[in-house]
Amino acid sequence: MQVKMNVIVAAAAVLFTGATSAQELVVKIGHVGPTSGQIAHLGKDNEYGARMAIDELNAKGVTIGGKKAKFELLAEDDGADPKQGTAAAQKLVDSKVNGVVGHLNSGTTIPASKIYSDAGIPQISPSATNPKYTRQGFKTTFRVVADDVHLGGTLGKYAVTQLKGKSIAVIDDRTAYGQGVADEFEKGVKAAGGKTVGREFTNDKATDFTAILTSLKAKKPDIVFFGGMDAVAGPMLRQMKQLGINAKFMGGDGICTAELPKLSAGTMADSQVVCAEAGGVEGESKKAVEEFSTAFKKKFNVDVKLYAPYVYDAVMVMADSMVKAGSSDPAKYLPVLAKANYKGITGTIAFDEKGDIRNGALTLFTFKGGNREQIAIVR
User: Fold this and answer.
1) Are residues 137 and 49 part of one domain?
2) CA 230, 53, 315: angle at the middle one, nearest 5?
3) What would the pLDDT profile of 78-135 be if each residue is shown by its tens digit?
4) Strands across the sheet with 63-64, in order?
5) Residue 295 within a domain
6) For residue 2, is it within any domain?
7) What is the domain count for the chain?
8) What pTM does this model have?
9) Leucine-binding protein domain: from which residue to which, for each copy (predicted)?
10) Using CA atoms, how far apart are residues 341 and 339, in angstroms rounded to an integer?
């Protein structure tokens, strides 16, 4: 009799456990960034931003459609390589993720976006700035930072009107991001009545720039703009000093990192570098981002490098849209996401008809004593 009773109790326990787990909704959020290679420090920064959001959502006990949601992060490494990026995207689609935050680079984000679009999976990029990304007609693509038209154009105008550049040289790394932001910078210079004296290119793995810098030195530039990432910009700054090129050095968000002084081996002069980050934090958001940065350092024992707060907000606005839609089904929460008006730590997130952030801001920075210093926020 006792044995029979034990069997009944065990069976009841199994049924009860099954009923409990049935009420739990697993929500898979994909994240892709380069966590290997030259800019792995930026890829890990983005991934940590996603982990912060996922852990907070689970700690809060978010419910979607009456079920307690358990958020899972599926993190993939694309090595900043387009082929690896599309392979990572397909892997996430096959894993049936409910949404994707990423990729970091425009060169991986753009080809991956078609794979997500074909699968109907919402994708929010926290850092890809090439305009093409949101101009493909896909309903699934969003970004939470300003694009290169705004970023490059603003820097081009600043070079002429504020830095009084008379002979401006342009270099890019031939990636979708680097070439794109350099093109927009050049347009901005011309629109402001300025003059470019040379355009050279390298690649995103290069370490020796002697040939192109020597060519540009003959044209006596007072400003050199580089479209690319900090891992290339650092050595380029070192070699500019070795060659006696004393020009101002400008770039977009790819070089606008706390790592740049280290990567240049301390050869940067104070105020030599002027760069822009595709985002701007003002007012209440400033305190929110400072608190985020403190919590981030405590959790991961590293400082925020660049876009972690925007990754965090991207995950949060995606989760908020699921809650409001009462579903984590991409087809059901996508229309809610498109109409989002979410107060994030970086500011209000609302998208236009293309999926671009409305009223996107830029923050201009320089470096003094090896530290980044804000110059201005421009909208």
Assistant:
1) yes
2) 80
3) 999 999 999 999 999 999 999 999 999 999 999 999 999 999 999 999 999 899 999 9
4) 63-64, 67-77, 24-33, 99-102, 123-125, 141-143
5) yes
6) no
7) 2
8) 0.82
9) 27-369
10) 7
Cβ contact 55:99 at 8 Å:
no
Based on the fold, state whether residues 96 and 157 are members of the same structural domain: no
Q: What is the pLDDT of residues 174-215, one digit of tens each?
A: 998 999 999 999 999 999 999 999 999 999 999 999 999 999
Angle at 175 between CA 169 and CA 179, to 5 degrees: 35
Q: Is residue 376 part of a domain?
A: no
List pLDDT tens digits, range 11-63: 444 444 444 445 789 999 999 999 999 999 999 999 999 999 999 999 999 99
Tell me the residue range of the domain where 203 lies: 149-277
* pLDDT tens sequence across 235-268: 999 999 999 999 999 999 899 998 999 999 989 9
CATH of the domain at 266: 3.40.50.2300
Considering the domain architecture, whether residues 216 and 68 belong to the same structural domain is answered as no
* Contact between residue 104 and residue 128 where contact means Cβ atoms under 8 Å apart: yes
Q: From the CB of residue 347, how many other CB atoms can be counted at a distance below 10 Å?
A: 25
Cα gap 160→317, rounded to integer Å: 38
